[in-house]
Amino acid sequence: MYTRNGQLSIGGTLVKMMACLTSDLPPGSMISVDILGHTVLVANVDGQFFAMDGICSHSLAMLVKGRLDGTVVVCPRHQARYDIRTGRAIGQPIGVEGRAHDLRSYPVEVRGGCVTVDI
Ligand code: FES
User: Fold this and answer.
1) Does ligand 1 lie within 6 Å of residue 64's CB atom?
2) Smallest CA separation from ligand 1 atom 1, residue
3) Which of 56, 64, 99, 101 is the best mutation target for the ligand 1 pocket, counting ligand atoms within 8 Å of the beta carbon and taking the most?
4) How many angstroms is it from 13 CA to the middle of ligand 1?
5) How far is CA 8 from the centre of its chain?
6) Structure pTM?
7) Domain membership flag for residue 3
8) 41 with 86: CB under 8 angstroms?
């Protein structure tokens, strides 16, 4: 069952889903994973792992096709910018109408070489 804030709860326990292995994601890289129907972007920033929604809020581009510049994810389509740590939109699309909005970020845990996301 889903809680009020959209987390999956089974028997009262919030579910953490394995996203990838740490070895799949070297520093400075990102990967897109489908978790329970959500496209989630997972990134490794200097050995720290972060996760947020993987679809741009402006016009639905796959953010994994963009680039990771430190903690900033740049959308491949119109260059909106998001902070991977918080999901916050910190830069708006360039040369087109419409705005980017904050994305949802997710807690990440690394244990035993596995990266899990708490969605
Ligand atoms: S689709 Fe991402 S900035 Fe336009």
Assistant:
1) no
2) 59
3) 56
4) 35
5) 17
6) 0.88
7) no
8) no
Whether residue 4 is contained in a domain is answered as no
In whole angstroms, how far apart are CA 6 and each of 3, 19, 106? 5, 18, 12
C-alpha dist (Å) from residue 45 to 40, 89, 104: 16, 18, 18
What's 47's domain CATH number?
A: 2.102.10.10
Spatial CB neighbours of 103, under 8 Å, sequence gap ≥ 6: 52, 53, 57, 82, 87, 88, 89
Six token digits for residue 48: 């720290």
Task: Say if residues 31 and 25 touch (Cβ distance below 8 Å).
Answer: yes
Tell me which residue range forms the domain holding 73.
9-118
Structural domain includes residue 2? no
The number of domains in the chain is: 1
pLDDT tens column, 44-97: 999 999 999 999 999 999 999 999 999 999 999 999 999 999 999 999 999 999
